[in-house]
Write a structure and sequence with these properties.
Elements lengths: L11 E8 L10 E8 L6 H11 L19 E4 L2 E4 L11 E5 L5 E4 L2 E3 H12 L21 H11 L6 H4 L2 H5 L5 H13 L7 H8 L13 H5 L6 H16 L1
Parallel strand pairs: 1-5
Antiparallel strand pairs: 1-2, 3-4, 3-5, 6-7
Helix pairs in contact: 3-6, 6-9, 7-9
Length: 248
């Protein structure tokens, strides 16, 4: 940029935020408008923090890591599930509409209780390592694993349980007992692990019905919105073929 170049002009953004506190009997869902001046490299998380610190301290939203790792700040951004900490305002129009993720229990405003659902899903699908040992020997040297296989397992372990895939899922909006892409990813991860002693018969009992892999309508919005770009499309198709063969 030359010395004579004009300084960058930042926009004035209008954020329309869905406000509602279900714990307040007198509260009703409504949209509230906030205006803020855009800054360089501003994310939605920064914008919301500015609003909460300088305009409205009652605005509720979640955050922990601010680096796209914890998944806490997932919300609907102009109708699409996204992480606020990884969404730059420069990639959005002047007017932005924010709402909490659907499907999950609402805490207030943009804050939802994803952890409650994720724990229930994990307990239902038994997403832990099943071995023949009754007690783990923590002093034993870990078993060797092929590096390529370890990389495949690690790829599926990158899920941050943000809930974006569930919020975008058409089946999940129609039936609350649907496992969803996050659950399929967990099953795929343990199915790959050679230390897990479960068979496809065992996995069929967990996901071999309409609440599991056969309930998926293959719209694959989960794959499109995953902030970690996990191979959800491939894993769902693979599990469906394996479970279909198992059910014959």
């Amino acid at each position: 940029m030359s010395d004579n170049a004009a300084p960058r002009q930042y926009r004035h953004l209008k954020l329309n935020v869905l406000r509602y506190d279900p714990r307040n009997p007198a509260a009703k869902p409504h949209m509230q408008e906030y205006r803020i001046e855009e800054a360089d490299s501003m994310t939605l998380f920064i914008a919301l923090t500015e609003i909460r610190e300088h305009q409205d301290s009652t605005l509720q939203f979640d955050f922990v890591c601010r680096a796209g790792i914890c998944g806490s700040c997932a919300m609907m951004v102009n109708g699409r599930p996204q992480l606020a900490c990884r969404t730059l305002t420069r990639d959005l129009p002047d007017e932005i509409t924010l709402a909490p993720l659907p499907f999950f229990e609402l805490i207030a405003d943009l804050s939802v209780r994803t952890g409650k659902w994720m724990r229930g899903m994990s307990e239902r699908l038994q997403t832990w390592l099943h071995t023949q040992e009754h007690e783990a020997d923590l002093c034993r040297i870990e078993e060797r694993m092929d590096p390529d296989l370890a990389e495949q397992i690690y790829e599926l372990d990158r899920c941050i349980e943000c809930g974006c895939c569930i919020a975008a899922c058409g089946t999940a909006q129609m039936r609350k007992d649907f496992v969803g892409a996050v659950g399929f990813g967990k099953i795929a991860r343990f199915r790959l692990d050679p230390r897990d002693t479960r068979t496809d018969d065992d996995y069929y009992e967990l996901i071999g019905d309409d609440t599991g892999v056969f309930g998926c309508m293959s719209l694959l919005a989960c794959h499109d919105v995953c902030p970690k770009s996990l191979p959800l499309q491939t894993q769902i198709a693979f599990l469906r073929r394996k479970m279909a063969a198992q059910g014959l």
